[in-house]
Design a protein that fits this description.
The chain is mostly helical. It is about 30% helix and about 0% strand. The chain has three helices and no strands. The radius of gyration is 11 Å and the shape is globular. It binds calcium ion (2 copies). One calcium ion binds next to loops.
Length: about 60
């Protein structure tokens, strides 16, 4: 578990279970325990998930299209 809120079983599908910055927000089913800030905006991912805000540059790019 990397603490990104996605179980290792779910991460096996398409994400890295050892990288807290690799996860699909739709697969977050457990408490987020990591304190990483993957997009470097100063807000840790756990808080961004709780707030429903953007956590990764990839999501930003998708939303800009
Ligand atoms: Ca992960
Ligand atoms: Ca962030």
């Amino acid at each position: 578990m990397d603490g990104d809120g996605v179980t290792d079983a779910d991460e096996m599908h398409r994400n890295d279970p050892n990288d807290a910055c690799s996860y699909n927000v739709a697969d977050v089913t457990v408490s987020v325990t990591s304190t990483v800030d993957c997009d470097g905006d100063g807000v840790i991912d756990a808080d961004e998930i709780a707030d429903g805000t953007i956590r990764t540059m990839r999501v930003v790019m998708i939303q800009q299209v």
